[in-house]
Design brief:
The complex is a heterodimer of chains A (about 290) and B (about 400).
Chain A: H1 2-28, H2 37-55, H3 59-88, H4 92-118, E1 131-134, E2 137-140, H5 141-163, H6 165-175, H7 187-210, H8 220-234, H9 239-259, H10 265-279
Antiparallel strand pairs in A: 1-2
Chain B: H1 6-25, E1 36-42, H2 49-55, H3 57-69, E2 73-74, E3 80-81, E4 83-89, H4 94-106, E5 112-114, H5 119-132, E6 136-138, H6 146-152, E7 156-158, H7 163-179, E8 186-192, H8 195-210, E9 214-221, H9 229-237, E10 242-246, H10 249-261, E11 268-270, H11 280-284, E12 292-293, H12 302-315, H13 323-341, H14 345-354, E13 356-359, E14 362-365, E15 377-381, E16 384-389
Helix pairs in contact in B: 3-12, 3-13, 4-5, 7-8, 13-14
Classes of the chains: A mainly alpha (about 290), B alpha/beta (about 400).
Chain lengths: ~290, ~400
């Protein structure tokens, strides 16, 4: 029973981690608190749904379309909409307020377009909904895919960020955007790239969760909020942190649902969140300042 | 990698929370026109849009189109006036639906107001309808308190029964199956900790108790839960032959999927809102066979079959198999009452209370302002969601138990 619960918790946590990784990069490195993040996820979910229901394209194949599209679109959004804000901002605080206001508007633009095209109805389709046996417990293949993708993308990007020169430059921009240019780093280019990368991760998450989660044109906010919790829990800008925080949340929810009561899952999540905010405000994996 | 001071995080959180709060409070736009004005505030965006977009909005659109195509609403003197629609989006906010309804009554001065979607929203606007003297044909609201509400708000009409109507019907059906030796008397039950789930589970406990059914697993879960594996595992381990979930659509779909993965095959699988959506059966194919839920239709009722065909032609998809046909029937009642009594709201309310009407449900006559001849339980059989409860009503189909195993 305990093994089953832990496996189910990790699988659920994989979804949370996958959804949060893009935001942690956008917020941590590009310094854009993107309130339209959930809408990016939903847009990708719609893309996967449409490709699947009209052309019969498998969602995992549509990842090949969605990820570059998410990258390109986010790159464009940063260039057109956020770059001017970054240029005129006087400091971290003003950029944060500006970017929240701007992406808040963007949220409604994307949501409105999706409402026009798809209406407000529930969308769900089934793909890879069969059980895979892991240590005696049956796990849904589509959810397992989310966990594997989260581990592969999260782990891969983590290695890139920590082991390559390119990654070091990105991290430098995230830690000290004012000083990074002194050592020859194009901070603006790095931020734009990071924002686009976050967008690509968001679309990957959207495609994968569309396989097993019902969504509507207006459910993006839920994903933004969940992702924000994971990001802050794990430490802003910290991929490994987002990954572990996501898995932790999944574990906690499943353990509470099994051994305490399914009614208290949300309470448990927010209890942990509150605790982290109080005692480790820079996140479980962020260094204290 | 990067460290944010606590203040920055709190600031971000605070601003984010404020923005979402502002979003919920923003007023919606309006269109204004003349003639027989019929207005409504409905959830076109937000959390309720999924439900309203299936049960309510398409039927309003279908009815208005059909009336206007026929030359308009007929009045007692035989003349016809076209309907002018004034529509507001309540953005799934209870304050907004009240505000929009007040606006319809005072500013737009519409002739009639159609009700919003959802139990809570219908209760929220009921005092407003009452104060301004509009009849309220509340369809998409399930409440056991309807008899009290009718006393409080004389022009309110409650068309979809109460929670205990549905749970009594389910208990009756289960008791019959136990008597026939098809299932044991144990029930595992989960419910969403929100309006619909709370109402239904509160009604279900005494219903099951009275029918001498034993509830061996009874938990609630928060709205937005996506993972049901632990609840399904517990229910499977409880030894109950009957699994009941009073759930909202996203959860209904998730439970259906995860029960297949877990190879959880209860002999009776009863799910909440969403299992009577038109696509539920076709999407699941053979796996839908035997799944039960609230609602159901009599496939031999020709008026209903014709209505479903028209709905599909005009809206582009089939209506759901629970509230849709009742919504449409309520509009037919309004139309007929206007034809008999004119645009006087007092007279129309009186006619709705006391008159008999030919609708897509057959002949309808309200009892104490409530529609009581309803289907309270349905089951997917051969791709149709047929009515199986109450078991003693004419036109009922026999429930097929046990449910077929997942393919």
């Amino acid at each position: 029973m305990l093994v089953t619960t832990i496996i189910n918790g990790l699988v659920l946590g994989g979804t949370y981690a996958l959804l949060a990784m893009g935001l942690t990069i956008q917020y941590g490195i590009a310094r854009i608190m993107n309130l339209a993040y959930g809408e990016t996820i939903i847009a990708a979910a719609f893309l996967a749904f449409v490709l699947n229901s009209t052309l019969g394209v498998a969602p995992l194949v549509s990842l090949l379309v969605a990820a570059p599209a998410g990258f390109a679109l986010s790159y464009l959004i940063y260039g057109l909409m956020l770059h001017p804000l970054v240029k005129r901002s006087k400091g971290r605080a003003s950029l944060e307020v500006d970017s929240i206001l701007a992406t808040f508007g963007l949220l409604f633009v994307i949501q409105g377009v999706m409402l026009v095209f798809f209406g407000g109805n529930y969308i769900s389709y089934t793909y890879m909904n069969f059980g895979i046996d892991i240590l005696g417990s049956s796990v849904a293949a589509n959810r397992l895919t989310a966990l594997i993708l989260a581990l592969v993308l999260g782990g891969g990007l983590y290695l890139l960020l920590t082991r390559t020169l390119w990654g070091t430059a990105l991290r430098a921009v995230s830690v000290a955007p004012q000083s990074a240019p002194l050592v020859g780093i194009d901070a603006d280019r790095a931020a734009r790239f990071a924002f686009a990368l976050g967008g690509a991760l968001a679309t990957c998450g959207g495609v994968v969760i569309s396989m097993y989660q019902t969504f509507t044109a207006s459910s993006g906010v839920i994903f933004t909020m969940k992702a924000l919790i994971v990001v802050i829990l794990g430490g802003v800008g910290n991929l490994a942190g987002a990954l572990s925080a996501g898995l932790l949340l999944g574990l906690v929810e499943t353990l509470v649902a099994t051994y305490v009561s399914p009614g208290l899952t949300l309470a448990a999540v927010y209890f942990i969140f509150l605790g982290v905010l109080l005692w480790r405000p820079s996140g479980l994996f962020g260094r204290a300042r | 990698m990067i460290n944010l001071p606590r203040r920055a995080i709190l600031r971000t959180l605070g601003i984010s929370a404020c923005m979402f709060a502002i979003a919920a409070a923003m007023p919606a736009g309006a269109q204004d026109r003349a003639s027989v004005k019929i207005g409504y505030a409905i959830s076109k965006t937000g959390g309720n849009a999924g439900g309203a977009g299936i049960t309510t909005i398409p039927n309003y659109q279908l009815w208005v189109k059909e009336v206007n195509d026929a030359g308009g609403l007929e009045l007692p003197d035989g003349t016809r006036l076209p309907i002018e629609v004034i529509e507001y989006d309540d953005r799934s906010s209870a304050e907004e639906v009240v505000r929009a309804t007040e606006r319809l009554a005072t500013q737009d001065q519409v002739d009639f107001i159609l009700p919003p979607w959802g139990t809570g929203f219908n209760l929220a606007v009921a005092p407003m309808f009452d104060r301004f003297g509009y009849p309220q044909l509340a369809v998409s609201s399930v409440t056991d308190k309807a008899p009290d509400f009718v006393k409080r708000w004389k022009r309110s009409f409650w068309m979809l029964g109460g929670g205990s109507d549905y749970t009594d019907a389910l208990a009756g059906l289960l008791k019959k199956a136990i008597g026939e030796g098809k299932i044991n008397n144990k029930i595992a039950m989960i419910s969403v900790a929100d309006g619909f789930g709370v109402d239904l589970v509160t009604a279900a406990r005494p219903s099951f108790n009275e029918a001498e059914l034993e509830v061996v697993y009874d938990v609630t879960y928060p709205v937005g839960t996506t993972d049901f594996t632990s609840m399904i595992n517990e229910a499977a381990a409880s030894g109950a032959d009957t699994f009941v979930a009073f759930s909202y659509p996203p959860e209904t779909f998730a439970i259906t999927q995860q029960a297949q993965v877990a190879k959880f095959n209860p002999k009776v699988l009863y799910l909440g809102v969403g299992a009577a959506f038109p696509n539920f059966g076709p999407d699941l194919g053979a796996n839908a066979e035997g799944i039960m839920s609230l609602g159901g239709i009599d496939p031999k009722n020709e008026a209903n079959v014709a209505y479903r065909k028209r709905h599909e032609e005009v809206i582009g998809r089939a209506p759901d198999l629970w509230g849709s046909v009742v919504t449409y029937a309520s509009l037919q009642m309004l139309q007929e009452a206007i034809k008999r009594r004119g645009l006087d709201r007092e007279a129309v309310s009186d006619e709705l209370s006391n008159g008999a009407f030919q609708t897509v449900l057959g002949e309808v006559k309200l009892e104490d302002n409530q529609l009581r001849t309803l289907w309270f339980g349905g089951q997917w059989q051969n791709g149709n969601f047929v009515a199986v409860a109450p078991v003693d009503r004419e036109g009922v189909s026999e429930a097929i138990l046990p449910k077929a195993s997942w393919k």
